[in-house]
Hints:
By secondary structure, this protein is of the alpha+beta class. The protein has 11 helices and 11 strands. Helix 2 runs antiparallel to helix 3. One of its GO terms (molecular function) is unfolded protein binding.
Amino acid sequence: xxxxxxxxxxxxxxxxxxxxxxxxxxxxxxxxxxxxxxxxxxxxxxxxxxxxxxxxxxxxxxxxxxxxxxxxxxxxxxxxxxxxxxxxxxxxxxxxxxxxxxxxxxxxxxxxxxxxxxxxxxxxxxxxxxxxxxxxxxxxxxxxxxxxxxxxxxxxxxxxxxxxxxxxxxxxxxxxxxxxxxxxxxxxxxxxxxxxxxxxxxxxxxxxxxxxxxxxxxxxxxxxxxxxxxxxxxxxxxxxxxxxxxxxxxxxxxxxxxxxxxxxxxxxxxxxxxxxxxxxxxxxxxxxxxxxxxxxxxxxxxxxxxxxxxxxxxxxxxxxxxx
Length: 323
């Protein structure tokens, strides 16, 4: 750097230039001399040294004092090797290879100045554009019947890869116990990668239709079992279907109340999160009261009612009228 030129001269600004004017001048010269743009590396070093000092309020104040007392402009700043009393090393001294590498990567050296704002991250962009990149994942949704979800199955599905428009066909295995919203990943069947990068994955989400009787709760299955008022009162043994198509016998004890739930372990759906296990089947009794009675039924029920002296509403009547 020429010893008779100050940092202000190098940047082409006045001594009283504002911070914005200094930054603007540096941007312009850095874009002109940056090595990545085919510029002069030595001149780029000079403008960088100047900006490093003038962009820092403390360093600029010391530098201005040196100029006032007749110091040699630039000789004692930026690691230029001068021997004056104000000598110190700035953060751009030393091996410039690391500095230039940082600037090419848009790391924002020199007092927080981000070179990517000038070159659009050209160095890092070029590196990124040549780097193998994995393709993004693709997602599809398949409709599955409730029965198919219980027992498992296989579905041949065709989907399109967006980047190429290419249609691809895949045999999707639906595991026994699949539930609504369950996801399965097929590696390497998604979008194509770039520069030799791997393909993304295909994520399949199942949309399971509702069953008219069975309701899923994870691997557990719940159902309601209607029984007559007579069966609930006298007791009964009732056949209960299970998700796997078999039938079990439920003994309804005499006096069973509406809402009573019975549990059958290991008769629910297969548990896809714990292979080899199944959930439970929960059967809730719903007592059905007849709405239309024959005369014979009515006479019989009235006779039973008149003979019944149980206090069914004892607790309720405690809060009734006191008068």
